[in-house]
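Hi there. Long-time user, first ticket. I'm pasting a complex I've been working with (about 1640 residues overall). I'd like to know whether the download I got is complete or cut off, because the file seemed smaller than I expected. Thanks.
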Amino acid sequence: MTVVDLFPPSPRAAGLAQRLDTFMRQRALPAEAAFAAWDADPARRWQVSPLLEELKDAARAEGLWNLFLPDPARGAGLSNLEYAPLAAIMGRSLFAPEVFNCSAPDTGNMEVLLHYGSAAQQARWLEPLLAGRTRSGFAMTEPDVASSDATNIAARIERDGGDYVVHARKWWTTGATDPRCAFFIVMGVTDANAPPHRRHSMLIVPRDTPGVRLARPLTVFGYDDAPQGHGEVAFEGARVPADHLILGEGRGFEIAQGRLGPGRIHHCMRLIGLAERALEAMIERARSRVAFGRPLAAQGLVQAAIAESRCEIEQARLLTLAAAAALDRHGARGAREAIGMIKIVAPRMACRVIDRAIQIHGGAGLGGDHFLARAYAAARALRIADGPDEVHLAALARLHLRDPDAQRSA
Amino acid sequence: MTVVDLFPPSPRAAGLAQRLDTFMRQRALPAEAAFAAWDADPARRWQVSPLLEELKDAARAEGLWNLFLPDPARGAGLSNLEYAPLAAIMGRSLFAPEVFNCSAPDTGNMEVLLHYGSAAQQARWLEPLLAGRTRSGFAMTEPDVASSDATNIAARIERDGGDYVVHARKWWTTGATDPRCAFFIVMGVTDANAPPHRRHSMLIVPRDTPGVRLARPLTVFGYDDAPQGHGEVAFEGARVPADHLILGEGRGFEIAQGRLGPGRIHHCMRLIGLAERALEAMIERARSRVAFGRPLAAQGLVQAAIAESRCEIEQARLLTLAAAAALDRHGARGAREAIGMIKIVAPRMACRVIDRAIQIHGGAGLGGDHFLARAYAAARALRIADGPDEVHLAALARLHLRDPDAQRSA
Amino acid sequence: MTVVDLFPPSPRAAGLAQRLDTFMRQRALPAEAAFAAWDADPARRWQVSPLLEELKDAARAEGLWNLFLPDPARGAGLSNLEYAPLAAIMGRSLFAPEVFNCSAPDTGNMEVLLHYGSAAQQARWLEPLLAGRTRSGFAMTEPDVASSDATNIAARIERDGGDYVVHARKWWTTGATDPRCAFFIVMGVTDANAPPHRRHSMLIVPRDTPGVRLARPLTVFGYDDAPQGHGEVAFEGARVPADHLILGEGRGFEIAQGRLGPGRIHHCMRLIGLAERALEAMIERARSRVAFGRPLAAQGLVQAAIAESRCEIEQARLLTLAAAAALDRHGARGAREAIGMIKIVAPRMACRVIDRAIQIHGGAGLGGDHFLARAYAAARALRIADGPDEVHLAALARLHLRDPDAQRSA
Amino acid sequence: MTVVDLFPPSPRAAGLAQRLDTFMRQRALPAEAAFAAWDADPARRWQVSPLLEELKDAARAEGLWNLFLPDPARGAGLSNLEYAPLAAIMGRSLFAPEVFNCSAPDTGNMEVLLHYGSAAQQARWLEPLLAGRTRSGFAMTEPDVASSDATNIAARIERDGGDYVVHARKWWTTGATDPRCAFFIVMGVTDANAPPHRRHSMLIVPRDTPGVRLARPLTVFGYDDAPQGHGEVAFEGARVPADHLILGEGRGFEIAQGRLGPGRIHHCMRLIGLAERALEAMIERARSRVAFGRPLAAQGLVQAAIAESRCEIEQARLLTLAAAAALDRHGARGAREAIGMIKIVAPRMACRVIDRAIQIHGGAGLGGDHFLARAYAAARALRIADGPDEVHLAALARLHLRDPDAQRSA
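Hi, the file is complete. Here it is re-exported in full:
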């Protein structure tokens, strides 16, 4: 395809893309059926399938491991622009990123520990994550406040002697139900009297800490996403040593900002890969299915669905690549306009494209035979996770309204 | 509200509406939490909750029973226009229609048996349904053909002596997994050489007939809708006596047409009730939730979501009521344009409104605490069930393109 | 068409509809070409065509005159619900309402004078309007303030002895450039210290008053709508006797509210008639035009354009009829929700439908051979005139957010 | 802005962009008011304003001339990717491209003559165009056939001895009414029996050829775009020497294809510049206008309009730059997918953005005080000119449906 070579990858990134694509086609995508069968068995679905670990070993053996990590010593050392197309390839299957140790929320947590963690924190928590031996959760959102305005976050992290004690109810903590989940990074208030963006801190809370309780698993539409899952987690006086605090008191927002930029690019690129796959499924269906005496491919509305999807995917891809490049060159602050735009654009695009694919598949698109319904649920959730569309629209508008020259781009 | 009194209900319908509304608020809606708890228990979720039977008894005792049935002897004897607002009230909760013995696909099957069934068929199959003692399935759609073009239906119903033998694979047979399901009405080909609309027949196949096998349950966006469920059903040489055929060989399309009109009105009005409830939830959330220092109710995009939803619901409601009146006055053929329009309009409207409500609820809207995610799945399925949007758009267009004066309405 | 007979017109209204339709087809629509030719001649286009006066005479002779006026003595005495379908018939042609003395802004001004004018005002200003001998303007909107918030209106109407003196700049005063325009009704501040809704008054200002100056004609998408036109009008110390004030000082908003309800219904029904005609044009074009070897009528996107338009028109029509009935039964206050909805719905619907018709007509749709481009401009203007969409969305939302039960409509 | 520097311009292109931007701000945009005044004067509006010639002289003196022309000897010698951002800068004002001798249809005609014209044709017709002394028309579209399917074109170009004789009716020939228009390039059938894409040829027809008649000027919405204008042109036995044929008989489609690629990129980039200016106007209005006690900038729907517009502009810009680069690298055939996409995307984007700007401007946005209404008309026309959206959607879909791997873009 001609469009994308505008951002020509480095030779190394191109090589990785090719190997990743091969692995996806030969190993990961064919495994989906086995995972579906595993998932259909109530007796074991909350356990991790051995096949997953096997695929992880294979990926690591091929050097397709920790590709997201910009640190060349511990990860692939790729720029955001180099990694972005790789995220799209992995994103074609919802389970695949984990195969390459590139799945949220672990990626974000690894970046937090890499950039802001102490050497001791890194040794204890980061290394097992990098090795794919543990998983982790990010405990940010709360059921009782509008977390879209993060200053609302009400969890309390109280100093008590040499410890911190956590009182909180968090939800949508992805990975909370995973048997391998080793710890949570918890965002909470350490000083309610500080200025709004200095009130919060981030704390590592091991999952087996007394007072940490999985209140319940959550579903997205009807999916519980076992075994990883999304949990509501109660922190009822959970006590950890003071050295579990990351970076320092009042630094929570600073850490969150650093975590968000790459995370949004990863999410968006994965969605672009998912939308591409939905488009391919649409095309495949249109070519093979006959209704009213003609293949779907000959019907105008089906053609329009395909063409519109293509236009939307390609635009979102270019914008996300542009945001990745902006992040590489200008840092999180310089890239915030571009990153705000992709956060608005990509999930809605993916919802539209996948929804069209569902419609063209008819009943088959709604159920479990296809990846589509589950993919829709995942894409739809990302219009809410990490700030709903509306918050990002308002933030983007304010960037322009503040500075009347900002929207010019000669 | 002033808009709706344009179609002033008859005194009897008004009385029923009021009692139904009271029952919904006092009995049915409060039971949703209990049903959710029942559903969360893997050990019994495929059984029918005793609470449901209790609510059914209460509804029947209050005369809120079989309200859909136009036959005054066996049902409420209401016109479609009278019944439509009652369907909207029941539709506010996904499980509620069954409480009043007004849920699909039983309603359609009861109408088929009432209008086209023999006395013996009525005695054996209709009466228990009317009494709410059994349930039933409608086995129409097939996985291997585009059933949107019903002439594609490939199931074979072969005469063999005094029997018919069925070879078919059907799916999306709602109720197939319900333990009370007593029989299926199966659509299949009895004469492949007849003209396209005379090839098919409808046959009653008791569920316990040898050769009938539930191949698997199906999900809609992750929901299996236990215990009613949606099944893929294999008919592998299932043999039933010839008197199980409804109306006669080659009459399948004729029966289907008579079944569809009221069924679409019921579906659409239920969706309108569901969308109304989503709007109420949106309003409630907007009034109670604070973000960025202001209640959501003060934010322009939230206001617009509410106002747009209101406009869309009201328009869809008026159109559906108009279609109901057209069906009452002009019959299925005279009402086909209006019914085609509501089939296009109402499910998409409900999807939009519910989706907005999900967005305003944030994470809470995606999960199981609210009715919203499940409601979205149900509304989305109705853009496909019973013919996808695209088929109805094309059919509606052809009505106009054939007869250039048809679109005038002085 | 089956949908609309749900609001069966009274026999008298039905008879009027039939005669009006006949007149439109036999006299008014065929005159469009002559008006276009008149308009193309720069020498006379700002004069009124004699053909128009001829058509007016014919319409009046047939009793198709002042049909909008609810007063049976001076007009047709029809309810809003009775008049609404007649407005749709007239609205099929942009110039036609004037033929029947039913065009804005004269209709609104006649209603103001009928309901609120003194006997002397009625004798001098209302009677010639009713007779179709004069025309008038409504001078409300101002270039320098956001008139969507009418409390912003800054025009000064100052008492000076037995006179009022007006200082104002108004624009979008439709009819200001018409040679027959006899007077303006001017909205302005008489008491800047009164509560916001008691500050303004309405004053009759004869057009030939010294100090009244047509600053310039305005265009809508390039159309100046000669000879009626839209003017920017300067009132530079224009002095009129005190008895030219309508109803009393501080009553401006009260009068505006009474004027708006019927006016919005008229506007919306005319747009519905216009959209219907656009749909008919679409169908005609689709049936007659061949591209890529097939008639447009066989192409899926064209079919969808037709079917979607049909659904949208019918819904808007039903909602507008519902609003008309609400206004008849419950008055302006009781109908404000319904009227707010149609103000939002109808102009956007008309824009979409007409835009689709333009697209299907290709180049022919953009120019002067078809009514479409001009119709689009007229419909688009009505998304702004009389309050932009956004103001009505917010107002409608507030109605619901204030009273959480308002959106229920069992 | 960070997004666009991803396609870093060459130093030469960057220098040109800066000088062009300066010229636009200092000379071209301030001249709009003078052009509006000229246009308002019926006596001279069909003549060319001396100010335009003065601006052209100034632009040429500064080397801002023929920037579109890839030929370094006769033009700027820029690649499509280099020229694209310059087109966006010029496109901010509808009249500005002509100032730099970069306006359609002359640019396309110059490219045709450059690539396919004989030396004699170039000397006689190309040189005066390059010098800005003449203008030209492109006579392709016909009123009587669906020209979106160019094989429908019915104009006859008949060989008669040493001449060709043209019988045709063409319309939407932009520039036909311009007093400087020297010739038309006419597309017509030379051999009706050849294969469809070998039937047509292109012929130079001097405007003063006997038998060439301007049937009438056309309008787009209400704009006649004097003095350039859009004409319906009759060719009634117009006779020209045979050496006026370009390239050879039957080469018409080949020439058209070569003309279209760059032309579409120019159109789309100009629209992007126009949309950007509309967004700037929106922001300026939002910051300065107060309604309901708050600046528009504080209102959620206005913010959303700004943010959505920003996202849409940026995506369309990236896609168009990608298409320009594809054209540079892969030629017209290799870039056809990307060019098909921008043809679909950019005009619709511009319509949406400009329409939002109109809405935010209220009445001021509809009239002549702002560039917005005229800009809307221009953008809307480009959804039809050069093939309607629907044709491009279908063509793009077919590219994918033919080759199932085409949509992949790893």
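A couple of notes from our side: Strands of chain C lie at 135-139, 156-160, 163-174, 181-189, 200-206, 212-218, 230-241, 245-246, 290-291, 294-295. Chain C has three domains: 4-130, 136-246, 257-402.
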